[in-house]
Design brief:
Distance between the termini: 22 Å
Number of helices: 3
Helix content: 25-40%
Shape: globular
Strand order of the largest sheet: 7-8-6-9
Number of strands: 9
Structural class: alpha+beta
Largest sheet: 4 strands, antiparallel
Length: about 170
Amino acid sequence: PSLAHQRTDGHWLCNIDGYRRKSEGIQADSQVCHHAESECENLMEYLSKGHAKFLILYHLIFVCKYWKALLEPLGDAVKALFTEISFSSQFSIEEMEVDQDHIHCLVQSEPTISPVSIVRRLKQESTYALWQQYAPLLKQHFWKERTFWSDGDFGCTVGNASQEVIRHYIETQG
């Protein structure tokens, strides 16, 4: 299955099956994993932009404040919000899965975007939107402030494990 995401500025290349699209100077590099030691025949292709080639993937985990099990009733809404936020950003969400109190995301980014800015944007915009849509429910859990996510988060680059291992791990959460 193709993972090409349509965004407001065209198509964002993010595939695992060889489907290629260009958008604003981003091109696929067909020479991805063609060496003998490669374990990654299904990995995403490197992107080219200007004089740089890159494939930047982060495994991010966001936890609800006080480990509240709010993603059981709001999980689909959070996933939709994260997807919507990524459409207007310079990153895309490749995989996402919720558990009762946290969400796992596999995020593809560009070298100019820091992981901290991705986390900040996802947390801020989703919290604001959730409070706009679900204020009565959230007021039952957070009576002091309009919050949703814990202050911390987890993030790592996908490097020590293959992308497929991370994908499988995220898909089996929940």
